[in-house]
Write a structure and sequence with these properties.
alpha+beta, single chain
Length: 111
């Protein structure tokens, strides 16, 4: 009987540790993808050309590329599309207050 209890305790420790590891990995992966792109390279079929990060660093570095940070999107080869130049806001994990109650659309103005 004591042997069974010992196994259960060690199993609980392992499972608890795995939960912490999973939570840590999830937190890290929630950060959006950020890539440096050439703002002047956009094409409808491909999106923006991904360039070296040095083209987006804020410094007095003179480059021939109009670099900008591009968040999210889908990368295909050295091109990315479907994202945005606007940095996404970090969510509060669903703990924020939603004003307006259920539905929340009662104060909309129609036209």
């Amino acid at each position: 009987m004591a042997d069974t209890r010992r196994r259960l305790r060690s199993g609980t420790v392992v499972l608890g540790g795995m939960g912490l590891l999973a939570a840590a990995l999830t937190a890290c992966s929630s950060d959006p993808d950020k890539r440096c792109v050439d703002r002047d390279s956009y094409t409808y079929a491909k999106g923006y050309k991904v360039v070296s990060d040095k083209n987006c660093k804020t410094s007095s570095l003179k480059t021939s590329v109009n670099g900008g940070w591009y968040y999210g999107g889908k990368k295909k080869g050295s091109w990315v599309s479907g994202g945005s130049f606007a940095k996404p806001h970090k969510s509060s994990g669903g703990t924020g207050v939603h004003r307006g109650g259920f539905g929340g659309g009662h104060h909309s103005s129609g036209g």
